[in-house]
Fold this protein.
Amino acid sequence: MSKKEGVLLDSGTNELEILEFKVGNEFYGINVMKVREILTLQPLTALPGSHPAVEGVISIRDDMIKQINLIQYMGDQENERDLIIVTEFNLQKLAFRVSDVSNIERVTWKDIETVEGFQESMSIIGAIKFADRLVFVLDFESIVDSIIPTSTEIDYDHAGKLAKGRLAIADDSNFILEMVKRFLTKSGYENITSFHNGQEALDYLQKNPNSVDALITDIEMPQMDGLTLCKKIKENKATEHIIVMLYSSLITDDTRHKGISVGADFQVNKPQFKSILQKLSEML
């Protein structure tokens, strides 16, 4: 595995690094921010009753980590070799078995093109066109939710009846957009605008700087990521008053400094819905 030379990525540059890997003969990618290490196959303990793609658990430095077979999940059988990508996102560690790992590419979110027609069903964020290959950047949160679903039941009893403020949400996942929107609506918020990427949100806010009091934004989005969106909002005198909440699976103790550096007012890890309401109540 090789990595391009260069300085570490700064926050708010709309850049990211993609770890490329293969499942069968197809190329896929994962945001390097989610990757902890790459290992050869480890001793495995089966988990009876699990989803067919959950092979079992492995022990990594005293951590018991579930291993998901992406080769089986993606419906491929042909392997060059087998490796494990150990990840951390959504406050949990998971291992993914893949066919092979190739290299790390530095790209921008503008390089990641949406793929109309099967964006949601295929669990992808988008595709990157290189000269000799097409790399699909996978939506690992969606994949995990289909294999190890988390509860989407939300307790609205805590919701205040004095919810005020005009809100905006930016997320490339229709599922997350609708879930957050429904949660905020049932919590009392009535004025909510939604966008599918950071560029859409920025274009709207620059034209209508006084129409939104707070923005809830994902980090990983095609065209423009949430860190770049936040930086541009806070650098513009017309929009700097807007409260920006980063709502992402990428927020950990190791990455929180990225949000701070671009001026984010709050950072909430998915899927902590109650924390969204608590933070909004503090500021609005």
